[in-house]
Structures are given as C-alpha cells and as structure tokens.
Amino acid sequence: MIEARHLSKYFGENKVLDDVSFVFEQGKTNLIIGQSGSGKTVLMKSLVGLLEPDEGEVIYDDRNFLQMGISERRKLRQEIGMLFQGGALFDSLSVEQNVMFPLNLFTKMTHPEKVERVNFCLDRVNLEGRNKLMPSELSGGMIKRVAIARAISLNPKYLFCDEPNSGLDPITSGVIDELIKEITEEYNITTVVNTHDMNSVLTTGEKIAFIHEGKIWWSGTRNEILNTDNKVLNDFIFAIELTRRLKR
Fold first, then answer.
1. Domain span at 140
2. Is the confidence at residue 12, as pLDDT, over 60?
3. Does 237 have pLDDT greater than 90?
C-alpha cells in the first residue's frame, strides 16, 4: 500500500498539487487520470521521489519516504518497478541487457542467476527467446513488454506505469492493460498507473483518482465512473471519447 497524505507542490507561485490525499491499494491497479497539466504526472513523480513535495507525506507500508535518508531511499527503490512512457529502453543494449540492467545495478547475483531471472521475466511477458534482439528490431507493443519485464526484474512490491498505452493501437493497448493487471494480481503488487485512456479505465480501473487543477475531484471504481454526477469528470470523459472517435 502507498498513501499520499496532504501532498502539495509548488513551481514558483503556481500550486500544482493542492492537498492531495489518496490510498493506492495493494494487489490492485490504481489509476490516476486527468487532463494534461492537471497534476497527475507531478503526483506520480512525487510518489517515487523524482520530485520533492513542499508539504505532506508519502507512506510506503508504514514507511515515510520523505523522511528517509539517501541510503534508505536507495533500499526502498529496489522494491519499486518503473514503466516509463514510450518504454525508455536503452537503444544500444539488447533485450536481455535492458532487462538485466536493474539486476546489475541493485543486486549481487551471479551472471547465470541474472540470465535465469531475465528469461523468467521475458517468458512472463510472452517474449521468450527474444534475448538478443535490439530495440530497433521490436514493435511498439514488444518494446512495452520488454519494459514491463525490466520493471518486474527485481520482483517489486510497487509498480509505477506512466502512460503505458501511449502510441499503441487499441488491440496492443488491451494486451498491455491485461498484462499489467495480471502481474499486479499474480504478485500482489501495489500498481499505480497514469493514463488518459478510457479503455484502460473501464477494463483495469479498480481504484481511480481523478485530478483536476491539482486536486482530487473524484475517486471510485470503473463500475462507478460511468454513473457519476461529477460534471468536471463527465466533461473529461466526453472529451476523451470524442478525441478517440475523431482519430478513427
């Protein structure tokens, strides 16, 4: 479980996060949704320490992240997997080397142990045998699956996904959504996903936080979101659906 408690973040005089509190539950796919500039990316970066909130607390299973020293944060980061927008693979490294990167950085495993772990992760995302391929040889969906394999290589307790469906077609997006959901449930991970994809919201949104102007304006489940009377949320859903249809 990850808990944001009264988080606020300023950039100059601009208050980007305004007293945000939310509990991201273990074993569930927790979604952060909102318009561009709403504060959702700043919230995710604040949760993982890429930004320091000006006010509030971030709690990882009773551990206050913002009060930790450098060594304590480094240890906690070994429990965190990150899926970056676009996959963010190293172009000069093979699939195997990309997935092995966190193992080289954070573990003292032997090389054979690392290869075994890499093969397990690639098999889990249905990419067995693709070890020696380079990122330039992969499709967009395969890049995202390699990125997921890398994100779970350290067997994380917490998984953060930033726009995992960005640039993907609807069918491939559905595959990625289902894979994230399966891994979350299988390993009982606390998963936090930034997304503006309403298909993702309706298929994987077990717990959803809608951010508007730096505040949480609504929270609920995928079953509740279509029946909300929150006008700002309904306008957001309508705008996303209209944009999707115009792109067809």
1. 94-155
2. yes
3. no
